[in-house]
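Researcher: Next sequence.
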Amino acid sequence: MSASIIDGKQIAEEIKKEVARGVEELKKQGITPGLATVLVGEDPASQTYVGMKVKDCEALGMHSIAENHPAEMREDELLSLVDTLNKDNDVHGILVQLPLPGHIDEQKVLLAINPDKDVDGFHPDNVGRLIIGQPRFSPCTPAGIVELLHRSGNPPAGKHVVVVGRSNIVGKPLAVLLMQKNDRANATVTVAHSRTQDLPEVVRSADIVIAAIGRANFIKADWLKPGAVVIDVGTNRVEDATRERGWRLVGDVDFDAAVEVASAITPVPGGVGPMTRTMLMVNTVEAARQLSGIS
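Model: Next structure:
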């Protein structure tokens, strides 16, 4: 057996075309969806990621504001900036890039974002709405995974899904999304983690395995049920002397071995990553609709 590859880039492009049509429809009504990104510090990975989000906005005809500030920015200055963006009618989505410098309370900043503009879906108000099945926005990576499963022909309904990882960004909200009563969910969900007893056996019980534990090649092929679907959220740098830069990206799953056991699998890179960025655009357009009173 050799698994089919779930191409996140291709599926993301399909969704971007839908987003672009949504942007055009809003523009006909005098509304241009706008996203503000806030970066504090000079972390290279964060700079790259924010830069890509700005390019995505431009490519889709959206308005973008890039607020890039030095690492020395005070917490009160950042909170004042968030308040200004909350009040800006041309800004429909606000994304504060994490992590923030150590002297800034991340939770305080996230709480300051207007929940109607919280396109990352991290505000407690939006987390609560997600849990009761009335989401304003779904967090981008979990929402992207749901779309990957749906659009690749691997629906989770009635399946046993094991999510390995319990972060507030991926594991917990993804479990909530997959157990909802709708045609893209209806799964039986187990959340496993580093403290789970006999983790390989738990993973082996899954029809769909979603790896989000943040450890390179952690999940082995013999942990998988033959024919399982594998979604790999991990993005880990490992040394590779054959590459000019000296490293390469790998996921949380031992891909080369798992591809011989699974029925379908996402690659790293090129799987979940493109979906996360795309779902941010989806959420921003949805925020523009909601804030403008358009159903």
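Model: The longest strand covers residues 34-40. Residues 159 and 187 are 5 Å apart (CA to CA).
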